[in-house]
Fold each of these.
Amino acid sequence: VCCVLCVNPHSMRALVFQMPGTARHDREMAIQAKRNLSKTTDPVERLRLKCLARGSAGIKGLGRVFRIMDDDNSRTLDFKEFVKGLNDYAMMIDKEEAQEIFRIFDKDGSGTIDFDEFLVTLRPPMSNARKEIIMQAFRKLDKTGDGVITIEDLRGVYNAKHHPKYQNGDWTEDQVFRAFLDNFDSPYDKDGKVTTEEFMNYYAGVSASIDTDVYFIIMMKNAWKL
């Protein structure tokens, strides 16, 4: 099973330089999402599928765009900001559909939506078993227990010296670790930190391409040595 990180059971060599989601899973998920787009009229489901059509990091990337726009750290967006965020992320949605989505999330009619709640709802549904195994992987990486995975956390977990770019002198250890963290980051704002939310959003995308809980859990256990 190959996803997250492909690891030989007897060796940690491959661990730090594989992509966290396999290309095959991403391709399958993107094709499936595009196919399902033509079948659904539910505006929230349509937005979810448009994100998933971009691969595992699609929903997480939209969250990052919204966070950048939240200048006052209110963790809310008004309709104008919401539409701008969708446009900045190149989500082609007409104004009527955007208004309908916004109305669904603006439950109290305040004219703003909580974007954490929005992103949680936008994630493909996951069973508690899947969420728990994702959190086990996060806790293993988050050595300091502060809810954020950083280079310092990775330093205590994995050996970067087997990475080919380290071996040929192109990268330092820190650059190897940073490349690993960047896999989870949005291409728009790579900060070298991975939060619980980003980790969960990423794996919600991976999860969408895997039909059974059993397969997903085996994949995570193999990949992270849980």
Note: Residues 24-122 form a domain with the Recoverin; domain 1 fold (CATH 1.10.238.10).
Amino acid sequence: MGGGGSSTRRVTFEADENENITVVKGVRLSDSVIDRMKEPSSPSGRQQSQHRSSSGAVNDEELKKRIAEELALERARRDSEAQKRRLFGKLLERERISSNEHLTRAILRERAATEEERQKAQRFAKQLEEKDRELKKHDAYYKEQLARLEERSAQFYKVTTEQYQKAADEVSARFK
């Protein structure tokens, strides 16, 4: 009656004035259980009801046997339900563990992907910095070359202008 424990209970019965059992000490029974016990369900139960109708007395041993059977059936039903609950609990626990493992794997995959992206970004940043330094070197080189070319061009222009002026003066002096 009390669950999964294997403790033994002592049950006592009392009969009222009409020889009908109304009190079972130590065990609580619902009205439906008492009604089922009163109904004939087996050949011995039918004999008991015939005996009860003919003599008007209740066979205490037979009633005790039926109550014990009902209690055993109730205990078996409760044990079965408890076993089902334990099995269901185990299944739920396995499912929870499985989903936790799945979630953990997904988190680890995401962390790995994030780390890979971070490393890629660092690599690209270093490549960009290297290209930037290279561009600055090229920029400085080309500015230096441009300055040299402008200087040479200016010198060439000056020399050419001087030569032109000199040639123009010579031509003018010849034709005067």
Note: The first strand starts at residue 12 and ends at 15.
Amino acid sequence: HSRRTAARDAAYFIPHIKPHFHILDIGCGPGTISADLAALVPQGRVTCVEIAESALNAARDPFSSRSVTNADYVVGDVTTRLPFEDDSFDAVHLHMVIMHLPCDPIIALREIRRVLKEGGVVGCKEMVMSTTRWFPVDKRLDVWEKGITGAILESGGSPDMGMGLKYAALTAGFEDHQVKCAASPWCFSDTEAVQFFGDSCAERFKDGSELRERTVKGGHATADEVDDFIQACHDWKEKKGAWFGVMNGELLAWK
């Protein structure tokens, strides 16, 4: 996740940001996108939100290493009530967050709308897990989608949330003329990207990992199938023309 950047992963959102904006970045993760956004608002700030202090500690690292100081770090939960007043932020950003939430996505978007200023913009990007494709085709690689989809569903999340963003935004109170939805792919096809993705997928399912445990205990794949998946990832990296793609939904909504 620390490989993500605003230029690549929030390109749809950046044109709507102004230098004075106060941006709320919900589910900021390792903070790489957050720090990029902070650099775009030199007269403003970015407030990073995570559900636990331990997660916020990781988010501080890119700010510190880049000497970016216009940031705040707050523990909060968008599924209940964020610790901010109404109409507090010029923009709210979320990247692969709503799909993992253990609640109706509409609840989260209503809370986001509450803390957004009049005229402010929400940018939200969510995956459509069912669009996952690998080439060359290898059935052993299906464990990736099965394991992650199963874990998300067990947590009450929505693995295909990218398709439902417009519906959720309209139901949460945004008007039709205030909502714009599009889509963009993640694609790993050049040599460096293929090596990175194959290694990272294998790493996420290694012995002792949370995702491996949830995949096996949830009955989404056997331990042997997970082991076969790890080997398939390493095999895939070396194949001629290796390619991976998945579609993401993108939401822009104004209050």
Note: The two ends are 29 Å apart (CA to CA).
Amino acid sequence: TPAERTNLAGVRHILLVLSGKGGVGKSTISTELALALRNTGKRVGILDVDLCGPSIPRMLRVQDSAVHQCDSGWVPVFVGQDKAIALMSIGFLLERPDDAVVWRGPKKNALIKQFVTDVAWGDLDFLIVDTPPGTSDEHISTVEALRPYQLLGAILVTTPQ
């Protein structure tokens, strides 16, 4: 739809950060990659689709921020004094940052699609998508929702064992 194309139209590159298991540092890699890109002058967004463990708002010290609506959807939270990192996470939609998200697949999949289509990212050089651990429906939903757009690639985070 035109709204979908509009909200991601200004995003030049999309990178997925994935792993086969939890606790390997996906969110840390996503955050550090965003900070490194920002430090080179790039405009960066992070889409945190780790719905059951949204840790990036806390990592970037914006966990008490709120998401607002605009004509084209949700406005992401802008991080830092320079506002060079845009962030969308379910962590901003919870009443309390430590609230648990106990949702079944269809509701999670609908929110992922909504995050992809309804966030007004503006112009970004990179959108980093931090995924949940494993190979669940959420990964399939994320890839399906992003299929119309050119993915730059994926970063697979692993451990030596």
Note: Residues 15 and 143 are 11 Å apart (CA to CA).
